[in-house]
Amino acid sequence: MQQNSLNQYDKLSKAFHWITAIAVAIAFVLGPGDFGRLLHDGIDPGARIDIVWHESLGITVFTLTLLRLVWVAVRPVAPRPQMTSWMRLLSQLVHLVLWFLLFALPITALLALGMEGHPLTLLGGFRINELPLLANSHLSGLADWGEVHKFLGDVIMWLAGIHALAAVYHHLKLKDGVLKSMWP
Q: What is the model's pTM?
C-alpha cells in the first residue's frame, strides 16, 4: 500500500531522502581533507579506496538529487503540517539551501578535479583521467574549487544536523508529526 496520505511522504520520497542523507554523511566522513596535497605528491586516487568511495558517493548523490527533483515534480502531494508562518518560511529556506548544496557539492568537486587536472576515479575501476571541458571553462579560474567544495561540505553537514534537530524538536516538543512524515 503506497503511503500518500496527507501526513506521510510516499515511499519513494522517503527512500530518496534517507539514501541521500546516508550517502552524504558517508562521503563527508571519507572525504580526505588533504586531497589536493595527496594528488600533488603523486598519490594515485585510484589507489585510495576512501577517495574512490568519496567520488563514487558524490556522483551517486548528484544522480539521486536529479532523480529526486524529477520525482518532486510528479509525486503525490507532500504533507503540509500546521506550523507558524516563520517556521514554514525557515523550513522552506533550509530545504532550498540543502537542495542547492546537493547540486553544488558534486559540481564544485568536478570543477576542482578539472581545474587541477586530476582524474575522477569511481568504484568498479571507472576512471576519467581528464575533464578538459571543465578545465578550460571560464568557471575554472573563478575560485579555488577544492576549497569551495570543502567549505560547502562542512556547511551541508551543519545544516543537515540543524535540519535533524528541528525534526526531533517537532517530534518531541510540538508533537506535530513532521518527523513521522519522513520516517521510513
A: 0.87
